[in-house]
Amino acid sequence: MERIGSAAASAQVTGLGWRCVLGALRTTVRVASLAEGVEVAGRAAAATGGYPGLRADVRHDRVGLTLQDPGVADLTGRDVAAARAVAGLGLRLDPLATGTRSVQGVEVAIDALDAAAIRPFWRAVLGYAAEPGRDGPDDALVDPDGQGPAVWFQRMAEPRPQRNRVHLDVAVPHDEADRRVAAALAAGGRLVSDAHAPRFWVLADAEGNEVCVTTWQGRD
């Protein structure tokens, strides 16, 4: 289906207990137990006819529900229909009270002079993927499992000579670390330090932006 845009989607779910955030519809349902959370997630899945664009984050006190059409990684009429179906269950949908904050989305922006030169490195080191139909040098990378924040690239007009003051840590299974490091290096990265491996490796992209690949080993 075609994208309908955030403004249109937001207008169509007004009053139903959903909010539009970063190209997705999100809400929260408070529950009294993990078992009740599983039940709520199941009811939502049934109401939407098993729509693959529905994701449920089930906790002991709440269920976070997210809708985004996986075919276009954006909002379509399918998401609006699914939001209405869930709203029809009579659940108390409250996007402004997840327990400590409202629903939200998080993105990480990496400054870049040449996004095309560093994007393959970040794709490899994070184990991320392109969104459907959006695989250009300036397009964001996303977690294919929908767990981590999206990463996108902010164009810079000129380089910054100082060392970057923010870096990412990517924690992986101990028997995945070597493969992940090798993939990142093959994608244009460089090894800054392996002095503390296998606890962590420090890598950098072609413009010097750093990331640590970490494991549990060496931390006891």
UniProtKB/TrEMBL annotation:
This is Glyoxalase-like domain-containing protein. SUPFAM superfamilies: Glyoxalase/Bleomycin resistance protein/Dihydroxybiphenyl dioxygenase. Residues 107-214 form the Glyoxalase-like domain. It comes from Spirilliplanes yamanashiensis. Pfam families: Glyoxalase_6. PANTHER family: CONSERVED PROTEIN (PTHR35908:SF1), HYPOTHETICAL FUSION PROTEIN (PTHR35908).
